[in-house]
Amino acid sequence: MNLLSAFDRLPERLNLVYGPEVGERVWPRLLSRLQNAPGEPSASGTWSEKDSILITYGDSITAEGEWPLQTLTTFVREYLGDAIQLVHILPFFPFTSDDGFSISDYERIREDLGNWEDVADLGTSHDLMFDLVLNHCSASHKWFQQFLRDEEPGSGFFHALDPSLDLREVVRPRTHPVLTPFETPSGTKHVWTTFSADQVDLNFANPDVLLAFLDILLLYARRGARIIRLDAIAFLWKTPGTGCIHLEQTHEVVKIMRDVLECVEPGVILLTETNVPHQENVSYFGDGDEARMVYQFPLPPLLLHALRKGDPSYLTAWLRDLEAPPEGCTFFNFTASHDGIGVRPLEGLVPMDEVRELAEEIRSLGGKVNERSQPDGSTTPYELNATYFSALEKAGEDPEVHLRRFWLSQTFPMCLQGIPALYIHSFTATPNDLEGMARTGQNRTINRKSWDWGEVASTLTDPAHSMTRTLNTLRERLDVRSSIPEFHPDHSQEILEGPEGCVGVKRGAVTALHNFSDAPVTVPASVGEWLLRDGGVETSEAGILLPPLSVAWFRS
User: Choosing from 231, 289, 433, 534, which is the catalytic residue?
Assistant: First the structure.
C-alpha cells in the first residue's frame, strides 16, 4: 500500500483519472469538501468475531399504521437482538424501477418507508450499511431530466454515443441493447444504459459527477453508515473498444473514495459489489488501498451446487486456493441476497454443463434463470432466481432433511475468514414468492417477498414451524460464533483433508466440520471442548461421527 497519507495521495489519484491538467483544477474543489466536512470522524473501522450482517429491504416486513423502517427496527431488536450487529438496509431512497436500484433522489428517504430519524433510531442499537448506487440513476432523476432539456449540469452527466459504434466487446449483465434513444431539443441521443432503459449510466469522465457522488458518500457516512456498498461498481468507467468492465479508472475512483473517507470518516468501510469471477472480484482490494471489503461471489453458487449434489469437491478446491485478503481487508461472506444466485463466478470453477444442469434444477422447482449476452450473440445463465431456501429443496424428500440442508448452508459461512451476512428471508425460511413474481412480471421478485408483521409475529409463536425453528437455529449459531475469538475476520484459515462429502475448516485451535453428503461420515479427530454440534453428532475411538447434513464445531 502507498505509504503516503490518504490526503497526500488524492491529487495523484485525480491526475491518474483525469490527467494532470484537469486533476489540478479538480483538486481545490475536492479539498474544499474535505475542509468543510462537518462533525467529528466516526470510530475506527475495525471488525471482530462479533460482527454479522442482516441484509433486508426497508419494507421486507410491514405493519398497518406504522412506517416499515419502524417495523424493521422492532423485528431486529425483538427477534435477532445481539446475534446481528449490522443491518444492511437496501436502497431506501425514492426510485422508479428495479426495487430501489433506479434512484431518483439520493438524499431523501422514500415517503412510504419513514424518514432519516427512523434510520437513526435503528442505528442506536445496530450498525448500518447503505448502498451507493453510482453506476446509474433513474431516468426521472433531476440530472437526466436536465440532460433531456440540454441544461447544465445534467447535460454533461451521461454518455451520448454514436449508435453506429461497435460495442460488441462490452461485457453485458443483460440482453437488451447497450444504448437507448432519447429525444432532446438538439435531436435524438443514444444513451448508455447497462441495466435498463430506466437506469441511465453516469459519466464519471466528467469530474463534476465524481464530486457529486463524493458529496453523497459523505452524506451517507454522516447519516450513520458503517459500511457503504458500491453497487455495480465494475461497470463504472466506459471506453468504447474495451469490455468496459474493471477499467483502471474505475479502480482509481474507488481508491479516491477510500482516501476521502480515511481523511474525514476513517471508521466507514467501503464494500465493492462485483458479481464476476473471483480473481476479478478480489482485484478491488487493490494493494490494500482500495475496497476494505469485497463480496465472496463464488460462495453462494458453489455452496448451492455442493449441497444439491452432496459433493463439496468444487467448493473445497476453491477454498484451498483462496488467498487471504490484504492486511486491513476482509471478505463479505453471504449465500442469499436480494438478487438471485449469480453463476458467472463459477467460470473456471465448475464445468459449464454442470452450471446448466443446476439452472435446470432451479427451473424444475419453480424458479427462473436470467441470461446474459455473449459477444457472439449467444446467451448463457447469469443468475438463478429463487429463494435460497427453495433452491435447496428436493422433490419428494422429508421436510426435515430440507431444513437440515438449509441450516447447513447458512451455518457454513459463519466459520469462514471474513464476516457472515444473512438475508432476512433466510431467517424466515421464505419459499419462492411465485405470486409476487406473477404480479410484477420480474424474476427477482421471487426472492423479495414483503411479509405482514402480524403473520410473522403469529408464526413465530409456533415453536414447531419451520420459520421459528430456522430463526432460532441461525440466531443461536450466530451467538456461538460471536463467542469464538478464532472466528475473528482476520484470523487465518486452513481447509482440512477429510472424508468424501465433508468440509473441515480450521481457525487456530477451533475446527469446524460440515457433512454435505446424504450419508454419515467419521472424521478422525479428538475434541477438547464442544462449541456447536447437531443432534446425532457423536464421538468414538474412531473419531467424530457426523450424520448427514450435520455441523460440529470444537476446540482441540
Answer: 231
